[in-house]
Design goal:
The protein is 55% helix and 16% strand. It is built from 6 helices and 4 strands.
Length: 146
Amino acid sequence: MLGIIICGHGGFASGMEQAMLQILGEQEAVVAIDFPESSTTALLQKQCEEALARIEQGNGVVFLTDLLGGTPFRVASTLALRQSGREVITGTNLQLLLEMVLERDELTAHEFRLQALACGHRGLTSLADEMDKERQAEASMVEEGI
């Protein structure tokens, strides 16, 4: 099973983990690491290395980070580049986390990355767009004679 490390600024990671626990319950090999204002890059790197040692089971690890170019992303990227089977995804949202936690069992880290990006894009929408999709689906059914 792929390990997942959620990492982000402030309480991002623990907040995502808490929401995941509320919806899915306890999940194996998922670690949340917050990067509060009082932390340092060195401390974050140490925490990520410790998390890797705990959850890396030979199947790979995926870092889910909050912000492209931020310290959590940069630390995760440095660690991912040290060993194959590690991926970094940034711009993480709750839909991506929930779906991918459930889908990760049979995926490589590379497959996880590709699927996670599609999932994250699907999760970013608006009420107006969803209503348009519904109207288009209804119009399609009328045109087809249903």
